[in-house]
Amino acid sequence: MRRLNRKKAFKVVKELDAFPKVPDSYQVKSNSGATVSLLTFALIAVLVISEFNYYLGVTYKYDYDVDRNIESDLVFNIDVVVAMKCVYLGADLLDLSGTTHTSSEEQGFKSEETFFEMTAAQREWLRNRKELLARHEEWRSLKDEQIDNYRLIHTAMPQRSSVDVPSNRQPDACRIFGKMFIKKIAGNFHITAGKAIAHPRGHAHMSAMVPRQEYNFSHRIDHLSFGNAAVGTLNPLDGEMKVAVDRNQMYQYFLQIVPTSFSFAGGQAYAANQYSVTRRERIIDHSGGSHGVPGIFMKYDMSALTVSITQDHQPFGSFVVRICGIIGGIFATTGMLHGFIGFLFDVIFCRKKGVAGSMSPRPARASQSYVETESSSLTTDMRIGGGNSVGLSTTEH
C-alpha cells in the first residue's frame, strides 16, 4: 500500500515538471543552428565578463538638498600672477555685508615679486592642465569617470626654484597668494591698479598714483578654489592664462559655488566646494561707451543647493539577477530570431521552387495508341465442387 502511494506521489510530482525532456530521436541539428549557438555563446561570454567588471567596480549616487549650513565660513584660496609690479597693484575682497579683506599678511593675502615668464616645469604643468580641462569638457556627463580619474591629481603649480631665477633681470610681475575665511554670501575679489584705501561710502584704489604706461593686466591663475581640497574635484580656473592686448583691459569672472560632499565606501568623507565660471573681457573706452575700471574682477555667489556624492558597490544579489537576465534573454531572443529567419527562408525557398516547377514543360506521350480505361469490372466466380472446376469471366466497358 505504501509503495502504491509512493508511486502516485512520484507521478504527481512528475506531472509538475516544467522542463520536459525531448528525446534525442526528435531533435534535428543543423549547421545554421550550430552557427547561431556559437555566436550566442560568444555574446554571452562578452556580456558576462563586462557585467563582472562592472560588479567589481563602484557606483556613485548623487543626492541634492537645500544648503542649511549658511552660518559657517568658507575658505577662499587664491594664487595668481599679474604682469605688474606689486607696488602698483592692489587686491582686496568685498562681500555684500560690507566686509573688506585687503592684501596684507595679517588678513591672509600675501604678495611677492616674481617673473611672469614661466619655467620649463611650469609650462609642462600648464600644458597638462589644459589637456585635462579639455578632457573634462568631454567627460562632463561621465561623473563617475571624473571622480575616479581625478583622485590623485595635484592642482598646485610647481614653484620657481632659486636656480630658475634670472640673475640679470628684475622681477616684472607680482604674485598674490594665500587663503582667507569669508562668509557664505556673494562677494567680489578684484585686482586693480593702486593700493586700496578706506572710504566712508565703500572703498577706493589710488589708481591715479600709477602711471598709465605701467598698466598690464596680463595674468595667470595658478590656483583658485573654495574650501579644502578634495578628491574628485577639478577647479576650472586652475591654469587660466590671459595676455592683455590693451593697457585698459578688463577681465571679469562670474563664479557660482556649489557645496559638495563626498562619501566613499571605505568610510572616508570629504567636503568641498565646486564652482562653475563664466568669462568676459573687454577694453575700457569711456569715449566709446565702455565704462569701468581696468583690472581683474572675480564675482562669486553661493548656490542654494548642495550635492552629496556617495560611493557604493553593487549588491551580489543584483549581480546574480543581471547575469541570469543576460543569459536567459540572449537564449530566448536568439532562439526566436533563428526560428523566424528559418521560417522566412523556408517560405521564400519553397515559393521559388514552386514557381520553377510550374514553369517546367510537361513530358510528351509515349505513343498514340495509349488507351485510358475509364472503368473495369472483374467478376470471378470460383466454384469448388467435386470436380475442382474454376470459372473466370471478365467484362469490360
Which helices and strands occur, and which strands form pairs?
Layout: H1 2-15, H2 31-56, E1 59-66, E2 73-82, E3 89-95, E4 100-102, E5 109-114, H3 120-138, H4 143-149, E6 173-183, E7 187-193, E8 196-199, E9 202-205, E10 219-226, E11 240-242, E12 249-263, E13 269-283, E14 295-302, E15 305-312, H5 316-358, E16 376-381, E17 391-396
Description of the molecule:
This protein is of the alpha+beta class and 397 residues long. The chain has a domain of 190 residues. The chain has 5 helices and 17 strands. Strands 1, 3, 4, 7, 12, 13, 14 and 15 form an 8-stranded mixed sheet that branches. The chain has a 5-stranded antiparallel sheet with strand order 5-6-2-10-11, with no helix packed on it. A two-stranded antiparallel sheet has the order 8-9. A hairpin with a 5-residue loop joins strand 12 and strand 13. 17% of the residues are buried. The C terminus is likely disordered.
Question: Could you write a compact summary of the structure shown?
Answer:
The chain has 5 helices and 17 strands.
Class derived from helix and strand content:
alpha+beta
Number of strands: 17
- Poorly predicted regions: 363-397
Distance between the termini: 73 Å
Shape: elongated
What fraction of the residues are assigned to beta strands by DSSP? Answer: 25-35%
Radius of gyration: 44 Å
**Biggest sheet: strands, sense, closure?**
8 strands, mixed
Average pLDDT rating? 77
Helix share bin: 25-40%
Question: How many helix segments?
Answer: 5
Strand and helix order: HHEEEEEHHEEEEEEEEEEHEE
